């Protein structure tokens, strides 16, 4: 490698380390789950995965993946429109569309790709995209790839969104984009109010439900169900890489004309390999388990999350009210958050501290994510460990 370039990279990397922004990866030696083991031989209780329902190592889902390989093979070695579409992919598209209350769906290798490929084919410089300031990186990148006018509104601020809609009044089409559940605060966007404004100002609505699909709303259909507007959102993007089994894959769910256009023009769909059939088969199973459960997972997760929130408040911690399984324990001070997380890890509890620039300055926190797989005993251990750490 060119030595100037190597020196440059070393310097930049040192700079990242100096700013304490360097990301180290802990290596697991077990499957994902509530109890895991890491390479240093430590057994820990895990409160930092997006495995909300516990599907990541679920027996029925693993079996569906194995059967998927047996029936459909390991890989397709093709994009969808050449020879990469099997019935299992069509089945998954039908099932995820129905689950999210949409007419049709199109699969992507990841939700990052879904968001990267959803705007550019649909909107150009005649149009405006109005986006929550805290939207996921992939939405921001997706918007950048289109030529549409970009307008940002303050996080979940409906008055500011209204201003944005007025600013966009002269555009041909307008679309409001937001995460359904925001991953750092665990807050749910008011999709009902957004749909109301969209109707008033003749705009479309796009919701990324990656942190919601599977457990938010009475039967886990996401933020639209939670807000009572299932079937009213124009575009829902979501991932199979979180609650729905946690492997990989994403989808855009929408009216059939939108999906049809994406199949013709969306670049991450056209120029990237098809989802492995094992993943498609397991994801079909995950959706079918959810449908059969009739909201059991949603209420279980809500009860466990409420229990943790309530007890943490009793213990004197600053935990905002919330409705999701993402629970920020606010510590504000960055080094305090790091120290407490380290102390918890020593005590066999795995959580992650977040500080600037991932969250605003002075808003450092430890993010706890509850899973259906956690027992009351697991949560009590977490509560006790927080109590001890805070001393
Ligand atoms: C995780 C996440 C994504 C990315 O999903 P992948 O399928 O892992 O690429 C996109 N949007 C939001 C809001 C997410 O939380």
Describe the protein in words.
By secondary structure, the protein is an alpha/beta fold. The protein has two domains: 24-52 and 295-390, Alpha-Beta Complex (Aspartate Aminotransferase, domain 1); 59-292, 3-Layer(aba) Sandwich (Aspartate Aminotransferase, domain 2), CATH 3.40.640. Helix content is 43%, strand content 16%. The protein is built from 15 helices and 13 strands. Strands 3-9-8-7-6-4-5 form a seven-stranded mixed beta sheet, with helices on both faces. Strands 1-2-11 form a three-stranded mixed beta sheet. The protein has a three-stranded antiparallel beta sheet with strand order 10-13-12, covered by helices on one side. β7 (204-208), α9 and β8 form a beta-alpha-beta unit. α4 (87-100) packs parallel to α12 and α7 (158-167) packs parallel to α8 (191-200). It is globular. Bound molecules: pyridoxal-5'-phosphate. The site of pyridoxal-5'-phosphate has 14 residues, from α5. Pyridoxal-5'-phosphate binds at residues 110-112, 115, 136, 138, 179, 183, 208, 210-211, 239, 241, 250.
Low-confidence stretches: none
CATH superfamily of the largest domain: Type I PLP-dependent aspartate aminotransferase-like (Major domain)
Overall 3D form: globular
* CATH class descriptor name of the largest domain: Alpha Beta
CATH topology-level fold name of the largest domain: Aspartate Aminotransferase, domain 2
Average of the residue pLDDT scores: 97
The domain tally reads 2
Strand order in space, largest sheet: 3-9-8-7-6-4-5
The proportion of residues in beta strands is 15-25%
